[in-house]
Specification:
This protein has 485 residues and is of the alpha/beta class. The chain has 13 helices and 18 strands. The strands form three sheets. Strands 7, 8, 9, 12, 13, 14, 15, 16, 17 and 18 form a ten-stranded mixed sheet that branches. The relative contact order is 0.14.
């Protein structure tokens, strides 16, 4: 079982933010609960909010209890909180980083070969000063022998290709390549990783994944939820940057990448798959991408607000909460196979799924539908194979035969942030993104985002609790397909 052997200091920048409360604090608690942490370690929150250690511990504790539904191991939680402190600081002031460095040095004085892990859960606008001050303030010191360093950067890294290049330059002006961990939490999910491993472990599946058999592919990340208190972030980003730029393109790469025999080549193969993706020729970008925004509606039995009625959303905002796009791959195995991506908020159901539809069967009777393989990563996680079987009678007629099994994690299971933190502290970069992966994704998304941001580009409205805009149905029907629901 994977656990942390080295003593470490974990410094969370943006410690008073939304992500820290809903993801990172509970992830650290789960590592403590599973006894994966060493005897000596520290967790330090850094943010501009003026706060005492006690107040920060209370926030940390409340977040853990909320995530666990109130069911916590009290002794584990209190022991974890004894390692938690807070440091008030300004991201732009190097003296605040120097004072934090002194605190870290004092804490680590008796530790052997400690690891320092910084986690950047901060707005892109403050990346540059934080990175600069980590080095100038002494938190990162490449001259210090015997101390490893990790810098974890949560996606999105930048808001377009140009801004990513600026962040990338700032990162590598101070840090070594092996010290940088670009995190997309989707690839920390066991079910998402399983897209690759199902192919690797099951040759029968792998042999089906080629253009002579596959008609088209759909990759969907559908959400019940709205913006969940993230108005300041989401209204500046939108669905295409938030979900497609990394999450859905990485899922596409895991499906289309070449299978290799060792994890060391995993990142190179993912990158190769991403570089082979391209936007198909079209007379207009409206044939490649479309967008929508939710209005008030009903989810289950609950009435929910429309996007423009959400708190702190800019008046008249055209930020899309739904998008669909079409891409293709230059890989010889996937040549000519259209791949449709879609994602949206406040939809009828929550599900993350890859659907692979196969070519038509030989016309033999009536009521034959195409075979399909679904890999469902979220929602009712599982795998379904849609086949056909004959019904009784002398004439050939058919009914669906669905073979399915749940994809339940068994064994040493973690939520995604717990697993990624564990891997990062231990220096395993396999499931973190290479900067070239991020750059390649931005290169694909930028022209589409520029098109969607134009005033003349339609924004199709849809009611919360539905399957999305009607225009999305027209978008895929043009190619003779239907969205799988």
């Amino acid at each position: 079982m994977l656990h942390v052997d080295k003593n470490f200091s974990f410094i969370l920048f943006g410690a008073s933010g939304h992500l820290a409360k809903i993801k990172i604090f509970p992830a650290l608690y789960l590592l403590a609960l599973k006894k994966r942490l060493p005897e000596k370690y520290s967790i330090i929150g850094f943010a501009r909010t003026d706060m005492t250690d006690t107040a920060f511990r209370t926030q940390f504790e409340s977040a853990v209890r909320a995530d666990m539904g109130g069911e916590v191991n009290e002794s584990v939680l209190q022991e974890l909180l004894s390692h938690v402190t807070y440091h008030t600081g300004d991201y732009t002031k190097v003296e605040d980083f120097k004072s934090l460095a002194k605190k870290l040095t004092a804490q680590e004085k008796s530790w052997k070969d400690p690891v320092r892990v910084t986690y950047l859960s901060i707005p892109p606008s403050v990346f540059a000063p934080v990175l600069r001050n980590l080095c100038e303030g002494g938190i990162h010191d490449h001259k210090h022998k015997g101390r490893d360093f990790r810098c974890i950067v949560e996606k999105p890294v930048g808001h377009d290709s140009a801004s990513f290049q600026q962040v990338r330059a700032a990162l590598y002006s101070c840090f070594q390549r092996e010290e940088v961990y670009l995190l997309d939490h989707y690839v920390g999910k066991e079910a998402i990783r399983n897209i690759f491993y199902l192919r690797f472990a099951n040759p029968v599946i792998e042999r089906l994944l080629k253009n002579t058999i596959v008609k088209h592919v759909q990759i969907a990340a559908l959400e019940h939820a709205g913006i969940e208190g993230r108005a300041g972030y989401f209204d500046q980003v939108g669905t295409l940057r938030d979900m497609f730029q990394s999450h859905l393109l990485e899922m596409t790469a895991l499906l289309t990448m070449r299978l290799l025999e060792d994890d060391a080549s995993m990142k190179a193969s993912r990158l190769d798959a991403l570089r082979k993706l391209y936007l198909p020729p079209a007379s207009d970008l409206s044939e490649i991408v479309m967008q929508g925004q939710y209005q008030k509606g009903t989810i289950g039995k609950e009435s929910v607000k429309g996007y423009l009625e959400e708190a702190d959303i800019q008046k008249g905002s055209k930020t899309p909460t739904y998008a669909a796009m079409k891409i293709m791959s230059r890989s010889s195995r996937w040549a000519g196979v259209p791949i449709y991506l879609r994602s949206g908020k406040r939809l009828k159901k929550k599900e993350t799924r890859i659907s692979i539809e196969f070519h038509d069967s030989t016309a033999l009777g009536k009521d034959i539908s195409r075979n399909r393989l679904d890999i469902i990563a979220q929602g009712e996680a599982g795998m379904k194979l849609f086949l056909q079987t004959k019904i009784g009678g002398s004439e050939p007629a058919f009914r669906p035969l669905i073979m399915e099994d749940p994809l339940v994690c068994m064994g040493d299971c973690f939520v995604e942030h717990s697993l990624l933190l564990l891997e990062a502290i231990n220096g395993n970069q396999t499931w973190f993104l290479d900067p070239e992966e991020v750059q390649t994704c931005w290169n694909l998304i930028d022209p589409l985002q520029n098109y969607l941001s134009k005033d003349a580009t339609p924004l199709h409205l849809y009611k919360a609790g539905t399957i999305g805009p009607e225009k999305a149905q027209e978008f895929i029907r043009r190619d003779g397909h239907e969205w799988f629901e």
